[in-house]
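A.,

Following up on our hallway conversation. Structure tokens first:
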């Protein structure tokens, strides 16, 4: 799959013939220097950006050629999102935020599942609170529940710990790891943080729109060393 932004002389090649398979029930971190194409890769996978050429499949179903309306439906029901800034709706309670993707998809929430994930993420006693009444870490837990609630084919997380202090960040990473281990959730996360990346099964390193390396069972220091080497080579 490739993705170019702009045309002719102004064209920027964000992804160049990237081939990658995110297997079910695995956790992959995507790292690389600024502008290397990480977010573009995540957005192509989530159906937010279409590849300029090539194919994208989600849970075995091709999504690259779908008309916009169908693509929006697929995004709502098959993709969960976790963002750096949480992106909760300020006027809705934690529970209402959690259930919003289900509502938009016209589906009835499974109450037991909602109780299970809000209990496991430790926000069961905060469900009637508004986002501004919650800490950053708690807001991100609500966002993780919102991502899990539809049992999506993939959760796409873009810098999920970027706005958190290190101890809340570690708690959020532990929960994302549990979502993979306990619920067999497939998770793809863009991060600049070697500690966050070390929670993944595999790290992909992107440089100039290409995957230049992969690392299994990453440790924070080996990830940091590889990032330093890539930055120096860039
Ligand atoms: N909407 C857009 N229009 C034009 N160029 C874009 C657009 N989005 C991304 N790009 C360009 O594509 C390239 C890859 O961008 P992308 O955001 O995917 O990189 P990234 O690795 O996520 O960067 P960062 O770590 O800084 O967030 C960059 O050169 C960027 O300027």
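Then the amino acids I'd put at each of the 234 positions:
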């Amino acid at each position: 799959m490739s993705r170019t932004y702009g045309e002719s002389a102004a064209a920027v090649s964000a992804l160049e013939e990237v081939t990658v398979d995110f297997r079910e029930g695995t956790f992959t971190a995507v790292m690389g220097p600024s502008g290397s194409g990480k977010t573009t890769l995540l957005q192509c996978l989530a159906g937010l950006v279409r590849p300029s050429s090539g194919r994208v499949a989600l849970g075995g179903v091709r999504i690259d050629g779908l008309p916009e309306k169908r693509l929006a439906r697929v995004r709502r029901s098959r993709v969960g999102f976790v963002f750096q800034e949480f992106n909760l709706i300020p006027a809705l309670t934690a529970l209402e935020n959690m259930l919003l993707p289900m509502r938009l998809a016209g589906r009835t929430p499974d109450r037991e599942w909602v109780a299970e994930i809000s209990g496991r993420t430790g926000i069961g006693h905060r469900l009637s609170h508004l986002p501004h009444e919650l800490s950053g870490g708690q807001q991100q837990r609500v966002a993780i529940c919102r991502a899990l609630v539809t049992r999506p084919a993939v959760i796409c997380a873009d810098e999920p710990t970027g706005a958190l202090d290190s101890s809340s960040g570690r708690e959020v990473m532990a929960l994302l790891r549990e979502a993979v281990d306990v619920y067999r959730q497939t998770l793809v996360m863009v991060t600049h943080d070697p500690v966050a990346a070390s929670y993944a099964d595999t790290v992909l390193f992107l440089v100039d729109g290409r995957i230049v390396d992969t690392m299994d069972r990453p440790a924070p220091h080996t990830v940091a060393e590889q990032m330093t080497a890539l930055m120096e080579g860039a």
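The CA atoms of residues 102 and 139 lie 19 Å apart. Curious whether your intuition agrees with the design.

B.
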